[in-house]
Amino acid sequence: MEKHSLDTFFRPRSVAVVGASPRASSVAGQVLANLQASGFAGALYPVNPKHREVGGIPCVRRLDDISDSVDLAVIGTPAATVPELIETCGRRGIGAAIVLSAGFREGEPKGAALEERLLAHAHHHGVRVLGPNCLGLLAPHAKLNATFGKGQAHAGNLALVSQSGALCTAILDWAAPRGIGFSALVSIGEAADIDFGDMLDYFALDEQTSSILLYVEGIRHARRFMSGLRAAARMKPVVVLKAGRHEAASKAARSHTGALVGSDDAFDAALARAGAVRVPSIGQLFSTAQALASGCRVQGNRLAIVTNAGGPGVMATDRAVDLGVEVVSLSRSTLDALDQHLPPAWSHGNPVDVLGDAPPARYEHAVQACLDDAAVDGVLVILTPQAMTEPSEVAHTLITTAAKHHKPLLTCFMGDEQVNQAWRSFGEAKIPHFRTPEAAVEAFATLARFRRNQTMLLEVPGPRTDARAPDVEGARLIIEGALAQGRAWLGGAEARAVLRAFHIPALPLVHARSASEALVAAETIGFPVAMKINSAHITHKTDVGGVKLNISTAADVRHAYTQMMADVKRAQPDAELDGVTIEPMSPMRHGRELLVGVSRDASFGPVIAFGAGGTAVEIMRDRSVALPPLNATLTRRLIERTRVSRLLGAYRNLPAVKLEAIEAVLLRVSELVCELPHVVEMDLNPLMADDEHAVVVDARLRVAPVAPASAPYSHMAIHPYPAHLEMRAQLTDGTDILVRPIRPEDATLEAEFVRTLSEESKYARFMHSFRELTPTMLVRFTQIDYDREMALVAVTEDERTEAGVARYICQGDDGSAEFALVVGDAWQNRGVGTLLMQRLLDVARRRGIKTIQGDVMGTNSAMLNLVRTLGFVLRDHPDEPALTRVTCDLRNVPL
Questions:
Q1: Contact of 74 with 66, CB cutoff 8 Å
Q2: pLDDT for residue 3 is more than 90
Q3: What residues pair up with 581 in beta bridges, in sequence order?
Q4: DSSP tag of 488
Q5: pTM of the entire structure?
Q6: 3-state SS of the chain: helix, strand, coil percent to 5?
Q7: Which residues pair with 75 in a beta bridge?
C-alpha cells in the first residue's frame, strides 16, 4: 500500500513557518524556536513580510518566494489570511499544513465561512490540514516540535491525540520528569479536516507507536472515528478520556428508552465494541499512560497485592472491588510457599501482608510466589517507608524478579524523599510505579478492561442471527404507511405486526372504540384481560389512568372503558383518544418484567438497551447498552452488565428464567434495527420472561423517513459482516469454490496461504521478500472494517484451503480506493484471479467507489493482462520505474 497521507506531518524534509516573528508573543515565532531547539535536521523557512530574518534564519516575504520544495507549512497568521495561504500551499505542491490560528468555526458566524473557504481550497488542491485553533504536533523520533508550547518531549512509544492543546502541554510537563516518551503528541483543535479517525488510522500502522491515548471533547465524524478506532485497537491499546459526561436524555423524551439512554452511554458502548477502553479522569489517563509506556499488558482481571502495611492493602482492595478487579484467592501451593518464607504473623491471604519489618528477601519470596500462581494475572507491590525498610534495595530486588516473568508487576512505594531513589530505579527499568494504591489499581483495571474489550472487537456478527428470515419488506411497508399518514409513532397492532415480521413474540391485542366493542374483544380473547388507552399523544399510559389490569367480567369491561376514557380526558384533555386496546393478561406465574429498547444516537446511530422493566424504569435506571449488530456472545454480555440479571436465576420459590428466550428477542431486535433504518426509538416494556419463554406485553416504535443511502447499513456505526456478498462459483476446470468476505477467524487460513506462496508471488504482491506474515499483519489483513475496506477470499467448499484474496481500501472521502490481488501458485491459470477481481469491482461500485487503482510490477504480465481486460488504464508509475500504475473508473463500468 502507498505511504499514508499523513506521513508528511511526522516526517517532513522541510518546514515553512508562516507568521514567524522575533516577538516574544509570536505564536509562529515560538514554533520556529521549538523547531530549532528540537534539532530538526530539515530546511526551515520563516515567512513574514515584516522581517528579514527570524531566529538567525533568512526570512522570506511570501510562500511563493521560497525557491525550494516545502513539505509542511505551519500557519500562525490571523484567520482572515488563512484560506488564501492554503490556496497558495496547494499551488506550490505543499500537501500538509498546520493551522494554529483561531477565529474559525468556534467563533463568530463569519469564522464558519472562513473555515468553509479554507476547506474548499484544501480539498481542491489535495492539502491535508491539521487544526485550525490547535497547538500543533511533536514527533520526537524525527526531532520535530511544530508546536508553540514550552518544552520538548522524550522519544518513546506513546501517541497522544487531543482536542485540547492545554492538555498536551500538561501531559508533556508531567511526562518529562518520569522519563516517559512519546512517538507523537498531536493537538487536532477544531479538526476541520484531519480528525481522530485520520490520526487513529495513521498510528495504527506507525511502527514507533505501541499505545495510543485520546482526549476527546466531541466527535464530528462518528463513522470515521469508529473506523479508525477499530483499526487501531486491533493492533495496540487505545485509551480514551472523554470530557463532558452529562445527562443527555431529554426531559421531553417520548419513551422509557429515550429517557434512559444518553449520548455518553452510546460513547461508552462504542468504545467497548471498538476494543478501546475509557478512563474517567486525567489522573487515570496519566496512570494508564505510565503503565502502557512500560510495556505493561495483562491477560486477565485477577490481582494479587503484596504490602508491608495493612491499611494500604485494604485501600487497594476497596478500589479493586469498586472497579470490578478480582482480588484473587491464592492457591494452596502458593499459601504453602508463602508460609515457608514469611513470619507466622503474615496475613495468610490476599492481600499478602509481609509485615512492616520486611527486608528485600521477604518481598522477593512473596512476589515470586504470587507471580508463580496460575490464578494470578498481575501483582501490585506496596511499600510504606518504616524504620527498618530499605526502599532502594527492595526496588532492585523487584526489578530483578519482574525481569523473569511475563506477568505485569506494578509498584506503589508511598511517601516522597525516602522512596524517591526507588521511583527513579523503577522508571529506568520500565516498571510502572504509582504514588497511591488507588492509582495503581486503576491502571491495572484499565488494562484489564482493554483486554476484555478486545474480545468484543473480534465479534463480527452479520445482520441476520436467526435461520428464519424476517419479512423486511412487510415491516417496511407498515412503517411507510404510517409515515405517509404523517405519523411518527407506531403502537398497538402496527408495532406488534413489525415485531412479528422479525419473529419477536408479542401478546395479541384487539382495538376497540366503544364499551361494546371492548366487551366483544374481551370475550373473544378470553378473561382476564388488560385494557390500555390507545393514543398517539400519550407516552406513559399508567400516568394518566390509561391502564386497567386483570379485568375478569363483562360488567367490569364496560365500567373500565367508561371510567378510563373519563380519567384520561381529565388528565390530558388535549390528547386525541382512539379508543382502547384489549389484550390477554400474561399467563406467566413466575415472570420478570424486563425492558428492551432502541434509541438513535446523533453520532453513533442505533443503540440497543436492556434492563429492568415496568413503570419505574427511570427511577431504577438499571440498563446496559450496546451497539448493533449483536450475536450470542455480545447479547450475553449486555444482559450480564445489569443488576436485574441477578434476578433471572432461581431464587426462593422462583425458577430460573430461560435466558435463551431473552437472548433470542435481543438478537431479533438487532436484526430489526440493522434492516430498518426507519426505526429511531423503540420500547418493548415490559418484556415478560419466565422459565419457558419471553413475550412482549407492550410495544411502541418511533419511525422517521430515511434518505437514500449510498451503501447498506450506512445508518450504523459498525458495519455488520456482509453475508449477502457470499457467493458460490465454479472455476474453469470445474472446481467448486466459495467467494466470501474475510473474517477474523481466517487468520490461520491467511497465514498458511501466504506461507505457501512462492518467493516470486510474495514479491509480486508485497514488493519485498519475507517468510510469513507477522501477527500485526495478520490482524490488519483479517480484522477489517467492512465500511471502508473489503477483502474477498476464494476458499474451497470445506473452507480449509484459501485459493486467493482480493482487497480494496478506501483512500479518503473522494471516492477512490487502492486494490491488491494475490492468487496461490497452485491455483493460477484456473480463473481465480478473474473471478475475485470481477467480484471486487462489483462490490466497490455498489459501495459508491468511483475510481480504484493499484501498482503492479512491470514484470507481472499476467496481472497486467488481467486488469487490462477488466477496463483498467495502464500508466507509468510517477516515482517507481519498475512499477505500472493501473486505474479503473468504475463510473464508466455498468453494474
A1: no
A2: no
A3: 511, 532
A4: -
A5: 0.81
A6: 40, 25, 40
A7: 18, 99
